[in-house]
Amino acid sequence: MSDGKFMTELISKFPRIVVAAMGMANVNIAQFSGFYAVLMLYIFVLTAVYAAHLGSGAVSRESVDKTYEFLFTKPRTRAFILSRKLLAGLVFLAAYACLNLVFSLLAVRQLGLPDDYSGLFARFSLALWLIGLVFFSLAALFAAGFRVAEHGARAGNLAVLGAYVLAVAYDMIDQPGILRFFTPFRYFLNAEVITGNVSLLFTLLCLALSTVFLLVTFRRFEARDLGAL
């Protein structure tokens, strides 16, 4: 505990932008829950990058590999093929979140911590999946909207970077107001998740945004000229 107190005092002396960039704002890293929350910020960012890769790849893989003539000449509609590819990506994303939960539980058991953190891990894993879902669907939308696959993938990665910058700005501002709505990395605040609350509003917002992004993805993909890629 003395080491935790020392780290807390040390971090309090860091510039605010450094604390915000490291994800240590508004958490007590002297406690395991706060320390885990800081780790989860980095995992959220990695998940967003992975989800963006999955979403972009689900739409544009055949364009990159120049194999669209093989797949899209099958007696199936574009919507049918795209839906199966997106579903496969969602399965990977769900498995990723489940593995995060499982390995978190195994790590606690290995460390021999006395308290039960299963609820904490489950809430953070749910938040991880929802955040990943937003970036997955947004990257799919970009991939369907850009004629050049690399441009769509780049836009998805830039969206992740932009959301992270806004998350840092959110932690630096005393009254960020509506800024929270523009960065999925702050839809589920550490303090709320640690105390047992996963925001229903932002859960619904994640689902709504993902639904809209995917619907637009299908519309854009249906109108896409695959032969011109």
TrEMBL record:
Transmembrane segments: 32-52, 86-108, 120-143, 155-173, 193-216
Pfam families: ABC2_membrane_2
Keyword Calcium: no
UniProt keyword terms in alphabetical order: Membrane, Transmembrane, Transmembrane helix
Keyword match Cytoplasm: no
GO cellular component: plasma membrane
Any one Gene Ontology molecular-function term assigned to this protein's record: ABC-type transporter activity
Protein name: ABC-2 type transporter domain-containing protein
